[in-house]
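Record type: monomer structure entry
Structure origin: computed from sequence
Chain ID: A
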Amino acid sequence: MPTRQTSPVSRARTSLWHTALFVLVVSSIVWLGAINVRALIGNDIFKTSATEIRFDDTLDPRAEREAYRLIAITSIVVLVSYTLVIVSGVVFLVASPFALKEHGWLMMSAILFYLFVPVEVYTLHIDWKIIYQEFYTTADNSAFRELFIARIKALAGAPFIALLCYYTIIALAVFQPFKRLQSA
């Protein structure tokens, strides 16, 4: 059986999209995990009732300050991993042999992801302000509360819709619907 010769350019392109896929998967896991951790930390600051959500008045100010510190740290992880997801996603789409016409699941995933880039950039801008307040100023809890409220109210819930779309992308990648079958 003759072996098929591949050119160095072809091997480099294959290696590039495999590397991009690996970075995309790992950074996506870290990014989505950090988003969920940040949400859980932020939830500790609130007291919920049947009709409203408000800040927990019984929470010690030092504990509240520690929650903001942890939010800032997880925001750094989100910022770095999201940047890696965007870059590796573009490299993967450009270098991979998958044609979007034959792989509808990949097209839908790309649309769902890149549709919410402006939303993520805006919320990451608010996150950067939280990071800056934490590591470069001596801001008090009221400054962090103001930024945290702005982060929660950002774009009237679009970040939550984006998160649901990101989980939909995982389902699309696993089940791969709308995949055109090659006829023999």
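Annotation 1: The mean pLDDT is 91.
Annotation 2: The longest helix spans residues 8-43.
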